[in-house]
Design brief:
Distance between the termini: 40 Å
Strand content: over 45%
Number of helices: 0
Length: 118
């Protein structure tokens, strides 16, 4: 089993910054990729950014140049640095971990609210 705990959400003004953290614990072997997703009211959950175990990153077009995903393998933490935040970035942000053992398993965190408003 894997547990994911997000932190760092909150209220920020447009143009501001936040850094989200996702701490992973448990049976952390054969991890393929970790990522951040978000879901705004009335919308489907969407990929924001991901980072593979090899360090390859992927970003949604809407956040390219503003958000940066990074990982600290020693601490089993993934970060999402969010700069130049816009009201449309408002959503619940979820951490996700994909693990390939004899099956492919996906784990989610509980989510953290990010609100961008003046």
């Amino acid at each position: 089993q894997v547990q994911l705990v997000e932190s760092g959400g909150g209220l920020v003004q447009p143009g501001g910054s936040l850094r989200l953290s996702c701490a992973a614990s448990g049976s952390l072997f054969s991890v393929e990729v970790m990522g951040w997703y978000r879901q705004a009211p009335g919308n489907q959950r969407e990929l924001v950014a991901s980072i593979s175990i090899g360090g390859t990153t992927n970003y949604a077009d809407s956040v390219k140049g503003r958000f940066t995903i990074s990982g600290d393998n020693a601490k089993n933490i993934v970060y999402l640095q969010m700069n130049s935040l816009k009201p449309e970035d408002t959503a619940v942000y979820y951490c996700r971990l994909d693990q390939r053992t004899y099956t492919y398993q996906i784990y989610w965190g509980q989510g953290t609210q990010v609100t961008v408003s003046s």
